[in-house]
Amino acid sequence: MNADTLNAIDAVQTRNIAALDAQDMAGWLATFCTDPEASYICISAENEQRGHAIALMFDDSRARLEDRVSIVTKVWAGTYQAYRTRHFFQRLACREAAPGRFEVMSNFSIAMTPEGGVSSLLTTGVYRDLIEVSPAGALIRQRRAVYDADALPRYVVFPF
Amino acid sequence: MHTPAHDDVRTQPLVWSDRISQVPKEVFVSEPLFEQELKTIYYGDCWHPVAHAGELPEVGDFKTFDLGRMPLLIARGKDRELRVFLNSCTHRGTQVETATCGNRPEFECPYHRWLFALEGDLVGCPGSKEFAPDFDKKNFGLKPVRTAEYLGLLFVTLGEATPPLDEWLGESMRSTLSVVLAGDGRLKLLGYQKVRYAVNWKAYNDNDGFHAPLLHTGFRLLNWQGGQGAQFMTPNGHISIEAQLKPIQSSGFLKDPSLIEFKGQNPEKGSCVVELFPVSVLVKHLDVINLRFAIARSHDVTEVHYAYFSHADDDEAMVRHRLRQSSNLLGPCGMVTMEDAAIFQRIHIGSFTPGYAEFQKGVTGGKEPSFDVKQNDETGQLPKWEYYRKLMGFKREAEA
């Protein structure tokens, strides 16, 4: 694959985590393709390893992705302690699975700072993505965020 | 063994009001009190659910869990019996199993290679010819813990005077619990969500029926009306709430309303919550079967393992439905329950102030907790607090 493809893939990953750190859920949604089958699954490494399908966030359709935006911004507004996150990712592998579709694996880590508190590591993990690349740019078709913590250190509001 | 707690904590100026609706906030934040609670409650004469048989269906399946700080090893033997052992080598005390769950033919302590059968027997110990003259392998099996089951839900106790499990649960809890456990307990594990909350275990398990329509905005946005129900309590601190599920009138808020469909058979008891003393919460809501195995880690940390299940007779579509609903509805990031998680931490921080946590909804002014409460009364928690107070040996002002 050429540098333009990798640049496009890195660009959509960057937009995704930048939106999360800005708590811009509409911006997060905009990094996913509009296909009804677009998905975001956030699952623990323990479940993944044991073959258990329960996830922390299970959005297996574009409609579910849109509902997550509504839940975070409308249902939960004002009920949780505000916190800041900083996402970091590093692409580890990329292969073309089909014309214009790329399987991408990236490590991620998320630092979390509650309002009035100190920074700590929320969790680390691996993104296993299927990313569509076109002349217009790249969009995420499937994201599987497999997080390492067997027990998360706190409740979670925003996607990983 | 039950240890009267008052002798150990009487140096603390912890006074309980004569009003039964007041709980001193200090009980939520006291570090020395937690140590006494471990002895009196977690290692005392109480039953604690630690697993469901559906988590360990095959011979050799195991799971580790902590009762307070006591490490446990739960395993299914070759005779298909579930047993619980202290997760500590009988040689030098080393933790035997470190994995959270898995399947093994036996358990080996790597330190000196002592080998234990799934049934706990010591079957190998290199160099034993030079052990003490009275050494006998028969005396060094993994130390078993007393267990009992109800519809596959496995309980343990370290106490010597703990009553039989049926008596501990009581008829009303067994009745609601049977609904949670799908009537016959034939559950299949779907997986876990695990999280630590910065909250004392007693605040985690103090969730009342009053808060639900007030805290949970989702109910209003989804036009999700609660149905008629009832609340039951036992004198030893258990609480259950059974409620009917009213059909949800779609408000158009969700693009994918299939997430909150009810496909079960019994809407009259479509929502059931059992809070077992001291800290476990067992829930059946819509088609979610959720057993919350909680660990009191310290006075300010409670770890909760949300275990989700399907039923053995579910078809593929029902399993898929339960999977989607379970993942998204009632966990630490659940559409309905994330707000609960956020409240836990705020209760803990707020409890460093002096005074009392005040119960109001349903309070009638009586001197003893009432067992006749409405579905959404806060007072359903009061028999539990009275049981806790007496168990820990705290006196009220008039008695002090």
If you had to describe this structure to a student in words, what would you say it looks like?
The complex is a heterodimer of chains A (160) and B (400). With 160 residues, chain A is α+β, with helices and mostly antiparallel strands. Chain A has a single domain, classed as Roll (Nuclear Transport Factor 2, Chain: A), CATH 3.10.450. Chain A has four helices and six strands. A six-stranded mixed β-sheet of chain A has the order 2-1-6-5-4-3. In chain A, a hairpin with a 2-residue loop joins strand 3 and strand 4. The two termini of chain A are 27 Å apart. The relative contact order of chain A is 0.22. The model of chain A has no long low-confidence stretch (mean pLDDT 96). Chain B has 400 residues and is of the alpha+beta class. Chain B folds into two domains: 255 residues, Naphthalene 1,2-dioxygenase Alpha Subunit, Chain A, domain 1 (Alpha-Beta Complex), CATH 3.90.380.10; 103 residues, 3-layer Sandwich (Rieske Iron-sulfur Protein). In chain B, the strands form five sheets. In chain B, strands 12-18-17-16-15-14-13 form a seven-stranded antiparallel β-sheet, sandwiched between helices. In chain B, strands 5-4-3-6 form a four-stranded antiparallel β-sheet, with no helix packed on it. In chain B, a hairpin with a 5-residue loop joins strand 4 and strand 5. The radius of gyration of chain B is 22 Å and the shape is globular. Chain B starts with 5 loop residues before the first helix and ends in an 8-residue tail after the last helix. The interface between A and B is large, with 36 and 41 residues.
Keywords:
heterodimer; A: 160 residues; alpha+beta; Nuclear Transport Factor 2, Chain: A; six-stranded mixed β-sheet; 4 helices; 6 strands; globular; B: 400 residues; Naphthalene 1,2-dioxygenase Alpha Subunit, Chain A, domain 1; Rieske Iron-sulfur Protein; seven-stranded antiparallel β-sheet; four-stranded antiparallel β-sheet; disordered N terminus
